[in-house]
Amino acid sequence: MLVVGRALSSDAGTDGEVRIISRDEKLLPGTEPHSPGTVGNGFDAPGNGRVTTGTVGIGTLNVPSARLGPQGVVRVSFVGEYLNIVNFPVRGATNIRSGITFAASIQPFSWGEIFVSYGAAANTNNRTSPNLIQALGDFSLGIKASNKWVKGFHAGVDVRLLTFSGVGNQSIDRFAFGVRPSLIAALDVRDFAAVVPIILNLALGFTFDGTGSLVTTQRLNASEEFALSTYRYNRFNLGLSLEVPLPWVMPFVEYTLAAPLGVPGGVLTGPDGATVPVGAVMPSQLGIGFKVTAIKDLTLLAGLQLGLARSVGLGIPATPPWNLNLGMAFAIDPFQRGETKIVETLKERKIEKKVAEAPKSGRVEGTVIDAATNKQLGNAVITLPGFASAATDSTGHFQSVELGTSQQVRAVVSRDGYKPVEQIVPLTPGKPTKIEVALQPDTKPSVLEIFVTAAKKPIAATVSLTGASASTVSQDANVTAPVPTNVPAGKYTATVTAEGHLSQTRDLQVGEGATMPLVFDLTPTPKKVLVVLKGDKIEILQQVHFATGKATILADSFQLLAQVVDVVVKNGVKRMRIEGHTDNRGVKAANQKLSEDRAAAVVDYLVGAGIDRSRLESVGYGDQRPVAPNLTAKGRELNRRVEFIITER
Predict the structure, then answer these.
(1) Lowest CB count within 10 Å: 19, 28, 84, 195, which one?
(2) pLDDT per position as a tens digit, 109-139
(3) C-alpha pair distances (Å), 334 with each of 74, 225, 404
(4) Which helix (DSSP H) or strand (DSSP E) does residue 9 occupy?
(5) What's the N-to-C CA distance of the chain in angstroms?
(6) How far is CA 575 from the centre of its chain?
(7) Which CATH superfamily groups domain 46-332?
C-alpha cells in the first residue's frame, strides 16, 4: 500500500521540489466591498437586500427602516420631486412644484445611525402671493438605534430634530423647530424562508413642529399652506413599507399617514368656508417604486406618491393627487482598506513510502422501511449470525460492525408487528454494502359478520361498505348464519337495501384484527308512502308528532322517520338540516326553545337510526316562519311542524 505525503520545502533536495505555477490576488477577510452590485446574484441571495438611504436616513423613500448595514459606511442620497396639477389645491388654481432633498447618514456603530437631510423646494401657484414661493434650508438631524432581537426581526427608535427656515414676503422671518420620535421595526421574511424575498418595515411616532407659528401677520390660504408646508397641529405618524429584494432591482410599496392631533371638534374649515371632518383631509399617501441595485455602491431610485385624501382643510397642507420622485443613492466606506494578498499555487513532489497493507474488511449499512407506506422504521433488529447485531435509529438507518474478509453474510431483519425478512448480502472489501429492506406488516385480517333480517328472518339484501375500502356484500334469503367478510381496519359507512323493505345505514369503526357483528333488521315498505324527495327538500305527508309542549317524539312517528332514513340512504343525501317550527300560542321565548329542542330530538332519532351526526344539523325558528294563519286550529296545526332541508347531495 502507498501513502502520499507533501514536500513543503521550496528548496530542491531529497524530499522533492516545490514550483510556483500561478499567482491569484484575493481580498483579505473584512475588506470586501459593503455594497457590491447584484447582477448575477441568485434569486435568494442575501446581498439582494441592499441598505440605502431615502429622503431621510436608511429606509424606502419616506419610511425609515430598523434594518441597518455594516458599521462605518457613509450613505448619501439626492431625491428630486415634481408635480404639475390644475385645480389644486382649490378650483381654478394651477400648481407646479419641484424640489430636491439631500440626505446623508453614517453608521459609527453596528447598532446606530446618525443622519441629516437638507431640502429646497420651489412652488408656483396662481392663488399665492407671490405666485412663486421658494422654501430653502429645511434641515433635519437625527439618530437611530436598532438591533436584531430575534431571527429576522429588527426593532429600535428613531429621533429627529427638525428645523424650518424663513421664506419670502409672508413675514416668515425666523426659524421654526420640531422633533419627531418614532418606534421602528423591520421583518426580513428571508430569514425564515429564503425563497420568499420580502422585507416589511413599520414606523410609529409623533411630529411636534412649530411651522404654524411662522406666520403671525396674516392668515394663509390653502395654496400658500401647501407651498410653505405649514401645519397648525402636531401629528401622529404611521409608515408601512414592503420591499422585494430581487437580483438587480428592489420594488417597494409604502403607505404614510399623518393624523393631526388636537383639532377642535374634529373638523376644519375648508377653502370655501364649509366645515370638513379631519379624517377626510389628513395627509395619507400610497407610494410605489423601485430601487435599481445592479451597480456597485450606486442605487437608482424612482417612486410615485399617490394621494389618498381628496378634501382640503385649512391648517393642514393639502395632499396632492400625485407626486413623482427620482433620485440616486451612494454607499461610501472611508475606512475600507480593500487589502489584497497573493495566493500562490504550488506544484508538489509526491513522496511515496511503502507501508504494510492491512487486510480489508466489509460491512453492511442501509435502511428498513414499511412495504405498504414506505415509511422508515426505527427499532428494527438486523441479526448477522456470527457477528454483533445492529438496530435502526429513528430514521430507519443502521450500520453494522466490520464483518471480516467474508465474501457474503446472512442478514435477518425483524421488528414487532412485521414479518421477518432474510437475505444474503454480498460484501465488498474496504467498502460498505448498502441495502434497503421492506418489511410487510404482520396483521390479522379484520372480519365483519353481516346478517340482514326482517321480522327476525333472513332476507335477500345488499350491504354496501364505503370508507377505508369499498365493497358490496350480497346475502341470500336462505342463509342461516352471518356472512363473514374480510375488510381492512378503519372507519366505514354501511348501507343496506332490500326489495320491499326500508333501507338503513350505520357508521362503524373496525379495529385491527377484530371480528365485529353487523346486523340489520329491516322494516317492510309501508303501502302508504309518507315521504317524498322534491328538489332540495324531503317532504313529509304527515307531521312528526310530539308530546304536548315537549320534545318527546311519539311512537306513531317512528314509521314516518324510518321512511325519512330510507330516502336519505337511497338518494345519497350527504348533509341535511332539520328545522323546528311552532304556532304563536304561548310565550315567544318558550316557543323558540321548544322548536330548537324538537329539531334536536329528530336529529337524535336519526343518529340512533344509523345516520352519522356530522351529516346533520338542527335549528329552531319558533313562530317566526308560519305557513298558514294562526287564526284557526287547522292553521296552528300546520305551523307546528318539522322540515327536512338537504344542504349537500
Answers:
(1) 195
(2) 889 999 999 999 999 999 888 898 887 778 8
(3) 8, 42, 65
(4) none
(5) 78
(6) 31
(7) monomeric porin ompg (2.40.160.40)
